[in-house]
Design a protein that fits this description.
Number of helices: 12
Strand order of the largest sheet: 1-4-5-8-7-6
Helix content: 10-25%
Number of strands: 28
Low-confidence stretches: 1-6, 8-32, 80-87, 90-115, 389-410
Largest sheet: 6 strands, antiparallel, barrel
Radius of gyration: 31 Å
Structural class: alpha+beta
Strand content: 25-35%
Length: about 500
């Protein structure tokens, strides 16, 4: 029978808490060599770290106090339907389209004389005299809305107003002395905080789930004016419109959406901050609609390459890629290439921070903007327009036309980007000025190709220098330095964006 080496055996026994006196003599003789050959890899600190998490929360008292203020909502959607007739995708109630995958309801009825569609969700009482908050998508296109309380009383609700941008709807029922929920401060939420949801997933009344705040300030393309709260609280169909609560039982959000590849909960859910929701609700109550401020800029993120190209200290801020003619931004003196860093003293860390800050203010508000331009900080004041009152920037770029021509010096620049002139018709189709832009026709430079420039892109500016001809484009590039990151303002698909190209 073979023998195991003694030295590893000693180490195992020592780790197990056995002393050398308990080992055979032969092993004890070799122990000093073993100890000498092994050095400690870590030491236990004299003072242990403080306990950062203590105990687990018990939500029973919270649910008992808050539960009566949470209601079920049933909405009858649209006209009566004929059985067996397929419903177009756009007519499927929004709650199903948001929370379930495409094709989940292929046999839903279509227009006709059969039963009408139904939408089920959750809401919560915000005043003792019968005002109820829920999601816009729960009651969108509803012809009848019913609110059921926890004591089984049922009321027909009046839709005071509904706002698709914030996904908030305000209802009113004729009742008094109702248990209204207390509202918290969603602006102070931090990742890691405990939160609770109460709702009716799949029609299961007063279902309670809990989790933590995963992130704050999340934005989504179709709702850019809402800085969503992301949580890992289990949310499913039927939870829409229900309250998200802090551990004091105060409402900090309205559960609105989930991210899912399957239609079921996958650990990522989103709630509308109660500050955003109440801003919308107050406007709906007073005027029946929500109006928002508009600055009139297109913005994008600041990458590390862009920060070098624009001589910025870091990547914080929203990079202005376009200023709408006649907009509040143009009147305030904002220019393409500016980086907006603050709005009324509130920091703009990413471009997605800007729309919620501006949209939360009323048209006509005066806004103080902190802007970086050419590496220097500037203070600008803008008076906001009303959202959608300013026209957009124009249509997508048109194909190359026979009237366009390439200059003889099209490749004569250090980035290896060949461009051609644009005619008046192409500029009109692209929504740009009569003396703006050149079109890329060929890319031979390796750095330019890696930067995702494409033939067909229209270059409007090199850095802050506008270019409207092949000669102007090449002069601007030839004026750059070796090793510099060159910023090209490119128009593609009807929008503008800066692209950084190392020279």
């Amino acid at each position: 029978m073979s023998m195991l080496p003694t030295q590893p055996l000693i180490r195992v026994l020592l780790l197990a808490g056995l002393s050398l006196s308990m080992l055979p003599a032969c092993a004890q003789q070799r122990a000093p060599d073993a100890a000498a050959s092994s050095a400690p890899i870590a030491t236990i600190p004299a003072t242990p770290a403080p306990q950062l998490v203590t105990g687990l929360p018990d939500f029973t008292r919270l649910v008992e106090e808050v539960g009566p203020g949470v209601v079920n909502i049933t909405a009858t959607i649209g006209p009566r339907m004929a059985r067996g007739q397929a419903m177009p995708q756009e007519q499927i109630p929004e709650i199903f389209r948001r929370m379930l995958p495409p094709g989940m309801f292929p046999d839903m009825p279509g227009p006709g004389s059969g039963p009408r569609g139904r939408s089920a969700g959750t809401g919560f009482i915000i005043s003792a005299d019968g005002y109820v908050l829920t999601n816009h998508h729960v009651v969108d296109n509803a012809t009848e809305v019913k609110v059921t309380l926890t004591d089984r009383r049922e009321f027909e609700a009046t839709l005071v107003g509904s706002d698709a941008q914030s996904d908030v709807a305000l209802l009113k029922i004729e009742a008094a002395g109702l248990p209204a929920l207390r509202l918290g401060d969603s602006n102070t939420l931090k990742p890691g905080q405990w939160v609770v949801a109460i709702g009716s997933p799949f029609g299961l009344d007063q279902s309670v789930t809990a989790g933590v705040v995963s992130a704050v300030g999340r934005t989504q393309q179709n709702q850019q004016y809402v800085p969503f709260i992301q949580t890992d609280v289990a949310i499913n169909r039927g939870n829409s419109g229900g309250p998200l609560l802090d551990t004091r039982g105060q409402v900090v959000g309205i559960n609105s959406q989930i991210f899912s590849n399957t239609g079921g909960f996958m650990g990522v859910s989103f709630a509308i901050p109660i500050a955003t929701a109440m801003n919308a609700a107050e406007q709906l109550k007073s005027s029946g609609r929500v109006s928002r401020g508009q600055l009139g800029v297109s913005v994008g993120e600041v990458t590390a390459d862009m920060a070098r190209g624009f001589n910025l200290p870091d990547t914080n801020g929203a990079l202005v890629s376009d200023v709408l003619p006649g907009s509040a931004a143009e009147r305030a003196g904002l220019e393409r290439g500016d980086v907006i860093r603050e709005v009324n003293g509130n920091p703009v860390t990413a471009s997605s921070d800007l729309p919620p800050l501006i949209g939360a203010m009323a048209p006509g508000s005066r806004v103080q903007l902190t802007v970086l331009r050419d590496g220097r900080e500037r203070q600008l004041t803008a008076t906001l327009d009303e959202l959608d009152a300013v026209a957009g920037a124009g249509a997508s770029a048109a194909p190359t036309r026979p009237g366009e021509r390439a200059g003889s010096d099209a490749d004569a620049n250090p980035l290896g980007i060949a461009v051609q002139e644009l005619d008046a018709a192409t500029r009109r189709a692209a929504g740009i000025g009569s003396d703006e832009g050149v079109r890329i026709v060929r890319i031979t430079g390796e750095a330019a190709a890696r930067a995702d420039l494409r033939p067909g892109d229209i270059v409007l500016a090199v850095g802050r220098v506008d270019v409207g001809s092949v000669a102007a484009f090449n002069r601007a590039l030839n004026a750059t330095r070796e090793g510099q990151t060159v910023m090209l303002l490119v128009r593609r698909g009807g929008g503008n964006a800066f692209i950084a190209v190392p020279r």
